[in-house]
Amino acid sequence: MGIRTGAQYINGLKSRQPEVWMSGRKVTDLVNEPVFQQPIREIARLYDMQHDPEYSDKITHICEETGERVSNAFLIPKSFEDLQARRALFETWAKENFGLMGRTPDFLNVTVSSMASNAAFFEKYNPDWAKNIQNYYKYIRDNDLFLTHAIVNPQNDRSKASHEQKETFTHLGLVKETPEGIIVRGAKMLATLAPITDEVIVYSFPGFKPRDERYALSFAIPIDTPGLRLLCREPMQDGTRSLFDHPLASRFEEMDAILVFHDVLVPWDRVFMHSNVEAANQLYSQTGLMQSTHQNGVRGLTKLSFAMEIAARLADAIGVDGYLNVQTQLGELVQSVEVIRALLRVSEYEYVTTPHGEVIPAGIPLETIRGMLPKMYPRAIEIIQTIGAGGLLMMPSGDDFENEELRDDMDRYYGGRSGVSAYDRIRLFKLAWDLCGEGFGQRLVQYERYYSGDPVRKLGMFYSNFKRQHSFKLVDDALNGALKAQKEPVGTQD
Ligand SMILES: Cc1cc2nc3c(=O)[nH]c(=O)nc-3n(C[C@H](O)[C@H](O)[C@H](O)COP(=O)(O)OP(=O)(O)OC[C@H]3O[C@@H](n4cnc5c(N)ncnc54)[C@H](O)[C@@H]3O)c2cc1C
């Protein structure tokens, strides 16, 4: 089939009934559920772009194996140009939602592509696992599927390993093997957008201990698999708030869910790994998951640029961007954007070719983005809050603004500097408040901190890897140079 349209994606959602719980009730009509309607539209729009002549050649390509047009997320890059083609997809889709939707279909499609192109890793442990991940890659590529992922154990007691938790199946684990597949029980989090996806893939960050074998799992199943329960967090919008009042929150909220597996059967052909602590601990570093960090980086750059532009437009609208303190904050934001932009470029230009010919962006600059964005983005939000100040809280609702009796007051007291009407200023400040004040915006800060794991441990791992790869030779040069200089008789220098 190849690339889907938005309508095909929506028809897929209509064709199944996953067990979704939200606000104390079972959601039985996903596509007409107000909380999900707008996010579904946003995702459908991305699928439609694949068919739009303006974008088609930029974000899709003809698959060599099938002759079908498929998303660039399924490209296994063999050259710098392939990396750029994939980046074009990340960038084009991120710009459609200003980088505020992190888990658009490209994110996990790239992840699975990268796992499949590193099938040799799975082969080492079990040839079936290698075959399964490769077939799964082809299946989601050819059907253009949308995945969520759940890779973190529920946050019960982080001081204990999985096998030491209060109950055997607090963390998702293997119950038994059957002729049809494995039975799994327990929970995983935090599957973003899960209710409106087609499938879920499960794998884990490293950190398994001896005796954690039953938890060392990786597999993928349809989101409506019997026994799989999706527990949504409390929605941050009810799907009925106006786009005038909440121009971002009403469009781009990504629902998160805990997945509870009640003795779910995972067919053997969907098992990518099980009962192997060593393999599970190596999975992340040995299967090129860096490729999805590329998507994160491009999307993060779009989001940070958006925050920077909002801060600049706020300052301009109320005539404060001539003040030195405001200029230094805005300058800091521009420089943050430039640092991330430069790091992305370095990662792409200094790409690495793996032994099996796959081209991957350089890891150190991408991981540096991963380390810096969790500090830069919250700072950007703080700057928006600081520049917008009380103005962020004085904005009327759209209904007030439309009320003829209030209109004169609105026009007189809500306008900005000369040339900025009340209408323009109110809309701008509401946009800013969605990003920096609403629950929606606070989730986006939390997302930037945690979307790919704990930044504290990630930075620790980053430095350990850096140390392994780096000789620190400049120090030797300086020490040797000093010895040499000491031995050279005075007057022999040129
Ligand atoms: C908005 C959002 C969306 C997300 N979407 C997804 C998704 O789609 N799929 C998915 O799988 N995950 C997703 N995540 C989850 C994300 O992977 C986790 O939040 C992240 O891995 C951190 O784990 P945790 O939240 O359990 O924090 P914890 O690991 O419980 O950490 C809590 C605190 O304790 C500290 N800490 C814990 N353990 C240690 C330790 N061993 N050593 C030192 N310090 C420690 C941490 O530094 C942190 O400050 C999402 C998270 C957020 C916030």
From TrEMBL:
<protein>
    <submittedName>
        <fullName>4-hydroxyphenylacetate 3-hydroxylase family protein</fullName>
    </submittedName>
</protein>
<dbReference type="InterPro" id="IPR036250">
    <property type="entry name" value="AcylCo_DH-like_C"/>
</dbReference>
<keyword id="KW-0560">Oxidoreductase</keyword>
<feature type="domain" description="HpaB/PvcC/4-BUDH N-terminal">
    <location>
        <begin position="5"/>
        <end position="273"/>
    </location>
</feature>
<dbReference type="InterPro" id="IPR024674">
    <property type="entry name" value="HpaB/PvcC/4-BUDH_N"/>
</dbReference>
<keyword id="KW-0285">Flavoprotein</keyword>
<dbReference type="Pfam" id="PF11794">
    <property type="entry name" value="HpaB_N"/>
</dbReference>
<dbReference type="InterPro" id="IPR009100">
    <property type="entry name" value="AcylCoA_DH/oxidase_NM_dom_sf"/>
</dbReference>
<keyword id="KW-0274">FAD</keyword>
<feature type="domain" description="HpaB/PvcC/4-BUDH C-terminal">
    <location>
        <begin position="280"/>
        <end position="479"/>
    </location>
</feature>
<dbReference type="InterPro" id="IPR046373">
    <property type="entry name" value="Acyl-CoA_Oxase/DH_mid-dom_sf"/>
</dbReference>
<dbReference type="Pfam" id="PF03241">
    <property type="entry name" value="HpaB"/>
</dbReference>
<dbReference type="InterPro" id="IPR024719">
    <property type="entry name" value="HpaB/PvcC/4-BUDH_C"/>
</dbReference>
<dbReference type="InterPro" id="IPR004925">
    <property type="entry name" value="HpaB/PvcC/4-BUDH"/>
</dbReference>
